[in-house]
Amino acid sequence: MMPLRAYLHLRYLLTGRLLREIGWLRLAFLVPMLVAVVGRALVLAATHPRWQWAAPGFVALTLASAHRQRADIRFLATSAPAYRRWLAAEYFLWALPVAVALVGFGDWGAAFLTLTLAPAVAALPPARESRSTRQRARSLFRSEAFEWVSGMRTGGLWAWPLLLAGAWWQRGGPLASVLALAGWLLMVLPCYGTSESVTMLVLAARTPRQFLRRRLALGLGYGLLTAAPLLWLLGSGPAGPGPGAAVAVGLAWLMLLGLLILVKYAFYPNSTHIRITQALVVAVALTMVGHPVYPVLLLVAVGGVIWQSQRRLRRVLGQ
Asked: What is the pTM of this model?
């Protein structure tokens, strides 16, 4: 039986291997952006008497989403009966920096809750074992939008009502709706982080331009449909920025979602590069939002990934 120390050492080696695959150039851009985004969000939450309690929930939701999609659960289950204790220890270590930061701001209760909820995630079943194929309810999304069908089954369907309830609870101010929109974008992000098989792409594609147009129509259509209640709360709140600002936020949100969809096919089929580039895009968007350079940078990025995604698809499809 593999001891806990050996398991943690193995996870350390796998993480190092993944970082080497990403490359130091990408990490030089990605790590500072992610640290800035997470640090800024953590400071805002820790200094607020109510939002400090959102940090434990966000950490637990992030770990739960990653845990339910792990592909090594069955291997760990056959390696040792106590594998869930290993997972609990791993998740405890991932949550420890957040708890230390909360303690630094004097939020002892939120820090304790963070370290309590994170290990508890290990008790959740993997997504593919929660229901059999026959027992699954019919999806609310069209089968053609397979990203949304699979992504919502692994967490989106229960995260969306929670985000909507939080935005409604704090509807007196715009911060809750904006944070809910950001959280929903992070929940949608994994839907487009894994490439479909080449066979699916070949069967669905006529030309790269038609294929991308259809993927964008489905993704942005469902994105608008699910984000609309949050945008309505943002524009109709008594202390909100008004309908015009809500429309502007919605357009920026949809443009960012479209950029993430295009990134998927610009780096197809390398899922690691897709996820890293998408994380970099989200990090830049969250750190530079409101900056005068941001709209120009966003438009240039959209133009670049449109060209690269069509070029990549032509190569894959042999056109």
From this structure: 0.70
Neighbours of 154 (CB within 10 A): 20
Residue 8 and residue 90 in contact, taking contact as beta carbons nearer than 8 Å: yes
- In Å, how far are 164, 171, 248, 258 from 168, measured between CA atoms? 6, 5, 20, 26
pLDDT above 60: residue 63: yes
What was the pLDDT predicted at 30? 66
d(C-alpha 32, C-alpha 49), whole Å? 28
CA distance linking residue 137 with residue 148, whole number of Å: 14
* pLDDT beyond 70 at 151: yes
Q: For residue range 217-226, what is the model confidence (pLDDT) as tens digits?
A: 999 999 999 9
DSSP 132: -
Task: Please tell me the distance from the alpha carbon of residue 114 to that of residue 91, in angstroms, as a whole number.
Answer: 10
Q: What is the pLDDT of residue 139?
A: 65
Picking from 141, 159, 142, the residue whose alpha carbon sits closest to that of residue 230 is 159
Q: What integer is the mean pLDDT of 234-246?
A: 76
Alpha helices in the chain (DSSP H): 4-22, 24-46, 54-68, 73-79, 83-104, 108-120, 127-130, 146-151, 157-169, 174-188, 198-204, 208-236, 243-266, 271-288, 294-317
Rounded to an integer, what distance in angstroms lies between the CA atom of residue 234 and that of residue 226? 14
Query: CA angle, 135 as apex, 131 and 140 as ends, to 5°?
Result: 95
Three state DSSP letters for 296-314: HHHHHHHHHHHHHHHHHHH
What was the pLDDT predicted at 154? 67
CA dist., res. 287 & res. 33, Å (int) = 7
Cis peptide before 269 (omega within 30 of 0): yes
Q: Tokens at residue 199, please?
A: 């066979």
**For residues 48 and 43, what is the distance between their CA atoms, to the nearest angstrom?**
9
305 φ/ψ angles, rounded to the nearest 5 degrees: -75, -25
Whether 53 shows a pLDDT value over 60: the answer reads yes
